[in-house]
Amino acid sequence: MSKTLGVWDHAAAPWLRDPAVLAELERLGYETVWLGGSPAADLTSVEPTLAASTSLNVATGIVNVWDGEPDAAAYTRVTEAHPGRFTLGIGVGHPQAVGARYTKPYDKLVSYLDGLDEGGVPVSGRVLAALGPRVLRLAKDRTAGAHPYLTTPEHTAQAREILGEGPLLVPEQKVVLSTDPAEARAIARGVLAMYLKLTNYTNAWLRLGFTEADLADGGSDRLVDALVAWGDADAIRERIAAHWDAGADQVALQVLNQDKMDVVRALGPVPAGTSF
């Protein structure tokens, strides 16, 4: 299977609805646009990106299963209008955001997948946000694969071992194109601050060998550098290659620099199988 790149941003991000930007992403060789920020299950937020592009795949990263019932009709509408170009990413989000509704999240995922099955959404058309082993196994058994968020190449290797060969594995990777350590880490910490309060992520990082000290005071340099790839283009490409070598099929880049297109131009195209 070829190794590819995608881009990741909020579903409402204007640049990922701009036909000129999307055409350039296609020319650069990016394969998928991942639309985050818990887009609604009715999928109306993904249609502008699909309509404004020609060959890019579009995926949700992710529809939050607590925000409503499975909407198989929306999936059918989107895939009939744009055959072969849409993947439904779903996940449980975070207890701090969901509140009292966040009970038995694994059972909620199973129930949601059951609803997609009943509505005729194919296994091949959906992926699951997965950090821990149990949900990764569910992704293997009930979906086309996994879309882990805010992880490391070490997690990618663990995820691939659980998924085995075949299922799709697309980790999200935050990047800052800057060779100034102070600048790069300041940008990274500004984004990571909210995630340091979310137990789904902090528990995953602790399982990877980070400590409570790494999570304190805005995150240690060790944690920040592990979660956010920064440096020149070659340094960031090395992180991309580390995910590929660990078993990722695609790496979804979330650019933290203000000029996002400047960064995606610097990093693409990246030919399949390239090693750095």
From TrEMBL:
User: What Gene3D superfamilies has UniProt attached to this entry?
Assistant: Luciferase-like domain
GO MF annotation list: oxidoreductase activity, acting on paired donors, with incorporation or reduction of molecular oxygen
Annotated protein name in UniProt: Putative F420-dependent oxidoreductase
